Amino acid sequence: MPSAGPVISAGIVEKAPAKINLALHVTGRRDDGYHLLDSIVTFAEAGDLLTVAAACEDSLALSGRFGATLAADPKGTGDNLVTKARDLLREALRARGLQTPPVAIALEKNLPIASGIGGGSADAAATLRGLLRLWDAELPADELATIALRLGADVPMCLKSRPLRAGGVGEAITPLPAMPSFAMVLANPLKAVSTPEVFRRLDRRDNPPISSPSQVADREAWIAWLSTLRNDLEAPARALIPEIGTLCDMLAESGADLVRMSGSGATCFGLYGDYAAAEAAVRHLSQQRPHWYLAATRTFAGETS
Prior knowledge:
InterPro entries: GHMP_kinase_C_dom (IPR013750), GHMP_kinase_C_sf (IPR036554), GHMP_kinase_N_dom (IPR006204), IspE (IPR004424), Ribosomal_Su5_D2-typ_SF (IPR020568), Ribsml_uS5_D2-typ_fold_subgr (IPR014721)
Mean pLDDT: 94
Number of domains: 2
Binding site for ATP: 112-122
Number of helices: 10
Active site: 19, 154
Keywords: ATP-binding, Isoprene biosynthesis, Kinase, Nucleotide-binding, Transferase
Pfam family, one: GHMP_kinases_C
């Protein structure tokens, strides 16, 4: 069972950046029930922090603002994505005759649980990256991608943690090198949203795909293009959690250039002209909703190489 605090004083550190769906179109549904998506994704400096180190036996320690929440969840007792990632990677490496000795893992859980910004998926991806470094091991890219997809549809993109377009169920990834960095506020009313229920309430599952993105790293051009898109999951999520609508209105009133929900919610984001404006918005919103999750952050720019 994971402990309430970190037990690692030194080790390999991996960031687990928040995944932000800047736009998400539902374009179909497979025979097995999985929905086909077309999504514009970026990643933020805000996120969880994972540390791995050699140990006498496997362990998982949880800390951070939402560590206790995760520990209280039945899946937090050893059946979460971090331990699943550890075990799947170990199995794959041992099949190749490689050594995978016990590890201590410490997860600083800074992102809300099940909040539409890929927290668990980012943690799983960070676990894969960190353990490959700790065990000084490599896997072919396709095999690592298969492991990531077994862990969840968002894990392959979280392995990249750079601006991208995701298709299929999330595994078809195309880098977006021209995407600029955005100053952003992440906000969540800390109310759980049922992802299956959000998908069940969709009015339409065969929407057209997203148009081609801007090919230049110009912020205004990207904002204008993103404004023509949407998140198809936002309307049903708003119907389930009215606070999502309230939160979006508050972000818009605070001066955001673009406001939208990420993933299946309930985290929403606002894009601001600069980081100082994002920080000012957080200060203002925190006075109105002191118990909600609010964070000013920056997203990563696309890489040209």
